[in-house]
Structures are given as C-alpha cells and as structure tokens.
Amino acid sequence: MKLTTIAFKNVRKNLSFYSLYLFSVALILTVFFTFMSFSLNDIMMSKISEDGRVETMTRTISVFLMAFVLFYMSYSNQFFMKRRMKELGIYTLLGYRKSAMLALLTIENILISLGALLIGITMGALAHKGIVAGVSLLLNLEINTSSIPLFNGKAVFYSAVFVFAVILVLSLSNWRLLRKTTLLSLVRLEKTVEKPIKVRVSAAILGLLLMISGDLLAIDVIRGKESLWKTIGVAPMGLSMVLMIAVGTSFVVYSFLPYLFRKLEHRKSLLYKDIAIVTIPKFIYRIRTNAKTLIMLSLLIAGTLGVFGSTALTMYYPVAAVNRIIPSALEFPIEKPEQADRAVQALNEAIGSEQFTAQQSTLIKIQSQSDNLPAEYALGREPGFELMALSDYNRLLHQQGKKAEYTQLEETHSILVKYRSDPKQRDVGQIYRLSLPDNQLLDITVRDTTLFNPIGFNISVGTLIVPDEIYHRLSGLGLPEISVMSIDGKNLRDSKAAYEALRPVLKDNPYFASSYARTYDIMSGNSSTFLLLSFLTVLFFIAAGSILYFHNISAVSYEQSDYEILGKMGYSKKKIKKVIRSQILMMYTIPFGIGLFHSICGLICYKGLLIDDILGQSWKIFVPVAMALVIAGVIFGIYYLITRRACYRTVFPC
To answer: TM segments (predicted)?
Structure first.
C-alpha cells in the first residue's frame, strides 16, 4: 500500500482526534494571515502611519508571530508523535524503514497543514476585511474598501512559504526523534516508567522565595522615586525580575509542588477519600512528565494575561485621562475680546444655544519667593501660580457636572490643584509667599489639595483657589491675567459638530482644546498598537488553551487502562468522571493561578513605569485590567469545559 494512501486513511480514520489540532492550527494561521494582510496593506498603512512607527512594529511582531507559530506547531507535532509511537512500532515490525515512516509523517503533516492553511487564508481574508472596515469607521478614514482585494497576493505567498518551512522543520525534528528511538521504545514508549522525583526541601523553599521575590520586585515600582527601579535602573531590574520569576517558577513546579503534595499525602484525613487517593499520588508520580508543561504554561499564561491586561489599560487610560487634561468639553484662552463672541455665535449656528453653557474665567498670574514650592509651580509654560476665585471655581465645577468640594475659605487659605495624586498630602499646611507689586508680599496657606482642576493643563497647571476677597484685592494690582472660555453641555465632549464649528474660528489659537479632538487623536494614535497587541493576545490564548487541551487528552489516553482498573475496583462511571475532572482541574488551576499572580504584579509594574497616573484613583485604572482578567478567566473556563468533555469521550466512547 502506498504511503500516500496510508496517510489519507490515517487522517480520515482519526478525523475526530485531528479535528481540534486542525482547528487550532487554522485559528493560529488565521491570525497570522490576517496580520500579514494588514501589514502588507499599503493603503491602510499610509493612512495610519506617518512616521514609519507602525511599519517598524509590524516587522518586529511578525518575527515574534512566526517564532510563536513554529513553537506551537512543534509542540503539537511532539504531542501527536507520542500518540503515534506504538503505531510506528507496528510499522517497524511489518518491515517499514524509518525513512518510510518519516515520509508517512511528513505527508500527514502536509495534509493537515495545507487544510489549516486554506482555512486560515479564507478566514484571515474575511477578518482582514472586517478589521479594515472597523478601523476606517473608528478613525473616520476615507478608504474605498472595494479597492482592497480580498486575498493579498504577497500575504498568501509569504504564508505558504512560511508553512512549508515549518513542515520542513517538523520533518527534521521527527527524523531526529526516529533516529535515536529503538524498536522496543517505539512500542513501549507510552508505558515508560517514570523515575521517582526526589523532593528537596531546600530547592522548594528557594523556588518559592525566588518567585515571590521576583513579583515583589515588580511591585516595588509603587514606591516611586525610592524604588529600586529608579535607584538602580529599569534594564537591570527588569532582567533580574524576569530571571527570578522564571527560575523561581521552575523550582516551585519541580520542588515545591511535589513537596506540598507529599505533605497532603501524609494527611490521612485528606488522602483517604475516594477521589484524593487516586489524584494526589498520580500527580506526584507524573510530576516529572508534567513539570515542563506546567512551567511553560505558567509563564505562557502570565504573558497572555499580561499582554491582554496591558492592552486594555493602554486603550482605557489615555481616554479616561482626557477628563482631567481637558475638564471642559471645549476651552481656550481668550486672546482677543471678539474671540469669545465669535465662538459662541459659531456654536449657536452649529448646535443651538440650548445645547451648551459657556463661562468666562479670569486667572491671575503671580510669582512666589518661597523655597518649598510644589512641583506644579514649575510645570506650566512659565513658572508661577494661577489664582482663581472660589466662586468661579465652584460655578465652573457645576457646569462640568462635578460636585463643589468647598463652599468657603478663610481669608489667607487656599486650595492647591494637584497634577498628580499625593496620598501623603505634603503640600497641606505649606505657606507660599506671593510677590505683589511695589515689593509687597502676601502669605497664603494651603488648606487642602484637590484633583478637580477647573482649567485644562495646557493653560494652567499651578492653580491656586483663593477666597473671593483675596482674588478681588489682587485683581486691582495690575498683575498679569489670563481669560479662559470654558464650554460644556450634554454629550458635548463627544460632539464632532461643536469642534468643527470652533476650529475655523480659533485656528490661530494654539491653546484651543477639545475633548472630542483629543480623544480622537488618542484613538487614532493608539489604534495600530492596540490592533497589533490584539493579534498577540489572540495567538497566546489559542496556544495556551490548545496546549492545555492536548496535554490533558494525552494524559487521559495514556491512563485509560488505569480507569478500567478503577471500574473493576468498584468505582462508578460518575466517580471515574470525578477523578478525571479533578486531574484536569489541577492541570488548569496550577498554571492559571501562578500565571495570574505573575501577571497582576507585572501589570502593577507596567502601570508604575509607563503610565503617568494623573487620575489619582487607582481603582479606576484597574477596572479595565480586572475586566480583562475576568474575560481571560471565562475563556480558559470554556477551554476547561471543552477539555473535560473531550476527556470524558476518550474514556467513555459510548
């Protein structure tokens, strides 16, 4: 019988077994082809990339994607090779040479990979069309989607070449395995007895300490300037953190988990139960086989959750921060008296007078001779404070839909508007000596600080809210003043019409700020980053879930005779299913728990290093992260249910 005929029959006979492998590889190739089509779409790239940054990112991520696809297909190939070893041993007994078996495996790989590639190209082409349409709609890009072909010729060519290169690598890997494997080991590989693992308490403690120390190192960034990340440097600390977490996780899986389960094994009240007496010894016995997979999955899931959480945070935070950067929907400093009237008239014509409220505020610019000045004093275009009357402040907050915090102030007290949150309240109680004309001085005491800035930071950073009496007294001294127009209204922050109405009127005003325009710029600037990170996230989820699936299916298949023995010992079908469920749950919860812990610490580090927190409310920042982690938990929960069902069907085919 020809090898091609045997290969076709094998694939057809084991179609149910190969189906998830085919589907998972097809999904990964779908993501890969979609990414290649997007990165090779010259029309799209010209619209979203002006400085070449996106092209650089796509080249970097494409290399990473190719390495990841190769890794996943290699892992899957090893899984199927183990499943086929007994069959290959029989072929050897029938007189087939190892070269013939290699050819058989290569033909099967070609059949499955070609099927996955065809599915991936078809689904990827449709996904690419959908992404182009979605990005065009989101960013208001004028793109004729009909001019973009469904199948990108270059993407098809590169994907096909890459898949055939992967098949070549897999064939070399299979040949290496067949060369060093004897006939007896081919037939008996599935039943190879594992060497019992030696539990070393010192290694268990060292692993736990290293892993926890690595995660503590990650969250040390919350100490700000006092953290090791600032005093030693980001590069050495980042490398140390990754090494400690990776090595610590390896020791925890190899030594701490066996030590922990040995302790559980000695607790008779826990061990002598119908399920625990099977699952705990079996886990300890199989720890050497499972260790590499558990370590890889723990780190892979940590990366998956970290990328997913950072993607959500990257998209959410800049948009949320716009509420502080530009507190009003529209605002601008009034450079000429007629500017305010022209702006109001333009809005009346565009959206109607009943749709907005406008307030003009005047800030007094003043210098200080104090030594203990806050950071905000020097953050503006020119060092100094901008004084605002308390009544103007409260009216403006009310217009913006915020609740006024202060109704009155004592004569020489003030409220300092902070740029960043200061939990230690270091500025409260400070006395700032303000410089007045004719060498006069005025001492102002900071009663409290607030994050409710009334004016955008492009106009005023060092804002001091003072009593009306002090404000009116200083306003007559000839100090420099800034008049600011703040405009708000229902849904005005998202109004393109309002922004378009004011843009021609204020085209020469560089400090004109619009919440809508700023949000659009952020979405436009980050959309490519978000899209590229999304490709990685989807790929990580598919790989992690599929590896968990294949590993559990493999373990259940190898141990099928053990379940038959349990049945003869009196275990009911329901109890055997409970044993299987406990084993699968253990293989899911251990890497997910470790990965979740690492990812949370990593996200805290990411937020501390790369995000300038001006919201001052950490719970707001971590809401999208928490949602992302919950979604990830649901996805892995679905994978668990699919795996459990497949394992049940493997043990109980009928």
So the answer is: 20-40, 60-80, 101-127, 155-178, 199-219, 239-261, 294-317, 530-550, 584-609, 621-642
One-letter amino acid of 592:
F
Q: Which residue has the tokens 């290959």?
A: 88
Predicted pLDDT at 583: 86
More confident residue, 264 or 250: 250
pLDDT of residue 524: 73
| CA separation, residue 392 to residues 181, 361, 365, 414, 454 (Å) | 84, 7, 16, 14, 9
Q: What is the DSSP letter of 383?
A: S
Give how far the C-alpha of residue 524 lies from the chain's centroid of Cα atoms, to the nearest Å. 19
Handedness of CA 331, 332, 337, 343 (dihedral sign): negative
The domain limits of the chain are 1-192, 357-488
pTM: 0.76
With vertex at residue 507, the alpha carbon angle to CA 475 and CA 493, rounded to the nearest 5 degrees, is 80
- As a whole number of angstroms, the distance between CA 402 and CA 450 comes to 13
Query: Percentage of the chain with pLDDT > 70?
Result: 85
Q: Report the C-alpha gap between 280 and 489 in whole angstroms.
A: 63
β-pair partners for 413: 445
Of the candidates 323, 318, 334, 330, which has an alpha carbon nearest to the alpha carbon of residue 453? Answer: 323
Residue 341: which residues within 8 A CB-CB, separation 6 or more?
Answer: none
